[in-house]
């Protein structure tokens, strides 16, 4: 039996087997691990590609947007170079937060998103950028092109969440957000992560 291309006889690994998108770095594919309704941190298992429970969230904060990563990206030396206060990349795919008007209440979905900016996050001396994007063709946010087009409260919520989501009361927290950046720098980070991936894993 023949199947029309593209056809995957087996489930592709979300990090390595899916595409970053034909229009990257402006519009990218995003694989979603977390939704704003999740109080448990899920993360793709690097070996199997299935979603694994990473940890229950200790605080009452929940993600203010969809949260996942861009396939076929890697935070290595090029991403680190764009983060002057980092000592290295975090060796993970590039994280992305996707804002949509309509609630999406399940993870393990793939969607197209337009890159509009990002957060320069550093976690234990590692570059851990959070790209900010909007759902492509969204009825409310579909025309948003830059981070400054969003209400300030949305960026404030993203900054607060990532500044505190690893918080354990009474213990030091080695996480900081150096700055919030606009779309041009965000596209540079995406491009750097795509090149880092090719260097690490090949085509």
Full CATH superfamily name:
Inorganic pyrophosphatase
Strand content: 25-35%
State the helix count: 3
Query: Structurally, how many domains make up the residues?
Result: 1
Structural class: alpha+beta
Strand order of the largest sheet: 1-4-6-9-7
> Can you tell me the overall shape?
globular
The beta-strand count equals 10
**Helix percentage:** 10-25%
Backbone CA Rg: 16 Å
Poorly predicted tracts of residues = none
Could you please say which CATH topology applies here?
Inorganic Pyrophosphatase
Please provide the ordered H/E string of secondary-structure elements.
Answer: EEEEHEEEEEHEH
Mean of pLDDT: 93
Q: Tell me the major beta sheet.
A: 5 strands, mixed, barrel
Termini distance? Answer: 29 Å
What descriptors fit this protein?
30% strand, single chain, alpha+beta, Inorganic Pyrophosphatase, five-stranded mixed beta barrel
Characterize the structure shown:
By secondary structure, this protein is of the alpha+beta class. The protein has a single domain, classed as Inorganic Pyrophosphatase, CATH 3.90.80.10. The chain contains three helices and ten strands. The chain has helices at residues 77-81, 152-164, 183-201; strands at 27-34, 40-44, 51-56, 66-69, 88-89, 95-99, 110-123, 126-127, 130-135, 175-182. The strands form two sheets. It has a five-stranded mixed barrel. The longest helix is centred in the C-terminal third of the chain and has 19 residues, at 183-201. The chain starts with 26 loop residues before the first strand and ends with a helix. The mean pLDDT is 93.
């Amino acid at each position: 039996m023949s199947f029309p291309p593209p056809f995957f006889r087996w489930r592709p690994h979300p990090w390595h087997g899916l595409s970053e998108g034909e229009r990257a770095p402006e519009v990218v594919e995003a694989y979603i691990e977390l939704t704003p309704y999740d109080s448990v941190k899920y993360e793709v298992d690097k070996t199997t590609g299935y979603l694994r429970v990473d940890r229950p969230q200790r605080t009452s904060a929940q993600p203010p947007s969809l949260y996942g990563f861009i396939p076929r990206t890697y935070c290595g030396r090029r991403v680190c170079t764009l983060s002057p206060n980092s000592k290295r990349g975090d060796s993970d795919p590039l994280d992305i937060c996707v804002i949509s008007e309509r609630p999406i209440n399940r993870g393990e979905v793939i969607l197209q998103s337009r890159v509009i900016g990002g957060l320069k996050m550093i976690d234990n001396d590692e570059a851990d950028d959070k790209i900010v994007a909007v759902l492509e063709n969204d009825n409310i946010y579909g025309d948003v092109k830059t981070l400054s087009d969003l209400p300030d409260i949305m960026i404030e919520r993203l900054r607060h969440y990532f500044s505190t989501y690893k918080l354990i009361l009474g213990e030091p927290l080695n996480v900081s957000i150096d700055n919030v950046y606009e779309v041009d720098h965000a596209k540079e980070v995406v491009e750097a992560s795509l090149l880092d991936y090719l260097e690490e894993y090949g085509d």
